[in-house]
Amino acid sequence: MTKFDEATQAIRIDETTYDVCLDPGYCIGAPLNGGYLMAVVLRAAVDASPFEHPVSTTSQFLRSPVPGPAQVRVEQLKAGRTAAFARATLVQDGVPQIESLITTATLAGADPVYTDAPSVVMPPVEECVKLPDPKPENNMTLNAQLDLRFDPPTIAWLTGGPTGRPESRAYFRMAEPQDADPYVLALAVDVLPPVVFSAGARGWAPTVDLTWHLRALPAPGWLTLIGGGRLISDGWFDEEVEVWDSAGRLVAQSRQLARVGRG
């Protein structure tokens, strides 16, 4: 069991309830990363399902849970021959924190009938760069769990030169050697810096709603994350992320709605 597997573990208590312990190693300042929280919820939902893979997840982030004990409550909505539908709620101290609607199925790994190409061509990984290590007092503990190598223009906001477009791109793998699985992909769709940073905004940008789809089981090796946005308006922005595996297959897609950071 890797550190990430342990940090997302869900222990079944009864037919509908799972105990979890939210790990402080996945914080971005005070809040826990949304992709990490989705992975925790999905561990419970998949365990309760007759199918193996979370092919579609929509999560609404009602509050920001804190590290420590919590529960996931799973309500089965419908199960058919090829898919099952459930509602899963992350609860802490009796208060709902995240509500998710999850569709599970079993992917067979078939070759695609049709596939598009990545929306952007990335430079080789050796030409990409890491972010500087954060100061300990910033509590950016998530950074230690990840190995992210960024396309340099998309992190020019660090030196005061944002591109002016909502975009973020990087190669990604876990810091601890681990082949990517659906739970790592749940984390991957939400580990890029908010795309509004590259458009000139700064500050914590809390996710309100995030939907992502598991399209294929990833091959071992680097994942390629390509993030972009369509509209920043009235304090809101959207963010779409494509995740491609080392074999050049689209393995995950996401779209989220978030608040523009304040300060």
Automatic annotation (TrEMBL):
Domain annotation Acyl-CoA thioesterase-like N-terminal HotDog: ranges: 24-106
UniProt organism field: Nonomuraea spiralis
Protein name: Thioesterase family protein
Ranges annotated as spanning the membrane: none
Database matches in Gene3D superfamilies: Acyl-CoA thioesterase, double hotdog domain
Lineage: Bacteria, Bacillati, Actinomycetota, Actinomycetes, Streptosporangiales
InterPro entries assigned to the protein according to its UniProt record, in alphabetical order: ACOT8-like_C, Acyl-CoA_hotdog, HotDog_dom_sf, Sec_Metab_Biosynth-Assoc, TesB_ACOT8-like_N
Signal peptide from the UniProt entry: none
All copies of domain Acyl-CoA thioesterase-like C-terminal, residue ranges: 126-260
One Pfam entry name: 4HBT_3
